[in-house]
Q: What sequence folds into this?
């Protein structure tokens, strides 16, 4: 059941989360409102208690070097399955390597929520307010973080980082030798997706499928009836983007006869599309087309005078790319044969 794979998703999200808060600065000003110092707030991965314990154990105020404040730390603290974002389990996605040489397939990812805590520790209240005001405006209440999920494959998704709440603590108990630590704890939830193993797939496209049926007696002289159903892929869009003609009138939702500027550019028994709606042309009379609307699961819609009319020809069938939507053309062949 299990096989080794490692997509580095958790690692990528943890690094991405930390990078959001890297580079925050605070400024100290004098009585003339001139900046006298600029401090970049250091950021590290680890629990808040670790830094507090170190600060309390180094309480000698006469030491030339101590752990300085302000300081920030973040930690990955929890993981939970998110059923509200569940997708179809059997659906697959296709990814292509950057050189286009290989195709990879994976099942739809599984949604999970990663919980993070960001702790901000300062000595002065003004330092804390400067830091917190540089963070909160970006979370309303979520910030979208782009993450490359599958290494060098083209699968990049925006991960919402949601701010869930803020708690405040002023650790100022003890004697006069105890250093003060003002602590703000910000709770975040990252809505991530976990991908399973990737498998190689061929880039070849099946151009034709034939299914044959033979009905009859097994006797050597009995006549048998054979039936062959042949299916070929059919393009549902114009790949070269050439405009055949324009609409000569407005078309509403119930019209099945439409008028174009030049009917000679369109032939019967072919497909056209206008806007996002595909139509099948049953007959052409002058500049009037008799059509069947909303083909291949497209949506029937209104069209205005002057809209572009595209034709879908057999040349477009040869340009279908892997992953494109397409329809089918089917033919039935039947006859009498003799069973062997």
A:
């Amino acid at each position: 059941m299990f096989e080794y794979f490692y997509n580095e998703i958790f690692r990528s999200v943890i690094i991405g989360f930390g990078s959001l808060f890297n580079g925050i600065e605070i400024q100290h000003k004098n009585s003339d409102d001139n900046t006298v110092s600029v401090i970049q707030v250091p950021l590290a991965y680890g629990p808040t208690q670790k830094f507090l314990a170190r600060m309390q154990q180094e309480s000698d105020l006469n030491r030339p070097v101590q752990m300085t404040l302000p300081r920030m730390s973040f930690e990955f603290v929890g993981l939970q399955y998110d059923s509200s974002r569940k997708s179809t389990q059997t659906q697959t996605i296709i990814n292509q390597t950057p050189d286009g040489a290989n195709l990879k397939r994976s099942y739809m990812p599984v949604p999970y929520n990663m919980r993070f805590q960001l702790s901000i520790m300062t000595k002065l209240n003004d330092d804390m307010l400067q830091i917190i005001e540089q963070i909160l405006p970006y979370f309303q209440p979520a910030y979208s973080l782009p993450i490359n999920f599958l290494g060098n494959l083209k699968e990049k998704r925006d991960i919402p980082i949601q701010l869930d709440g803020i708690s405040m603590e002023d650790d100022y108990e003890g004697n006069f030798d105890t250093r003060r630590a003002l602590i703000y704890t910000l709770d975040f939830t990252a809505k991530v997706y976990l991908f399973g193993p990737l498998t190689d797939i061929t880039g070849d496209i099946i151009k034709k499928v034939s299914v044959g049926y033979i009905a009859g007696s097994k006797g050597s002289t009995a006549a048998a009836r054979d039936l062959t159903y042949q299916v070929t892929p059919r393009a549902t869009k114009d790949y070269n983007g050439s405009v055949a003609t324009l609409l000569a009138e407005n078309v509403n939702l119930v019209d099945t006869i439409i008028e174009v500027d030049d009917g000679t550019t369109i032939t019967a028994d072919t497909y056209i599309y206008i806007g996002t709606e595909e139509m099948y042309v049953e007959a052409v009379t002058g500049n009037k087309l008799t059509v069947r609307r909303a083909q291949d699961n497209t949506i029937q819609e209104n069209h205005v005078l002057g809209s572009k009319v595209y034709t879908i020809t057999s040349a477009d069938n040869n340009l279908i790319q892997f992953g494109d939507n397409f329809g089918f053309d089917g033919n039935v062949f039947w006859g009498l044969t003799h069973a062997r």
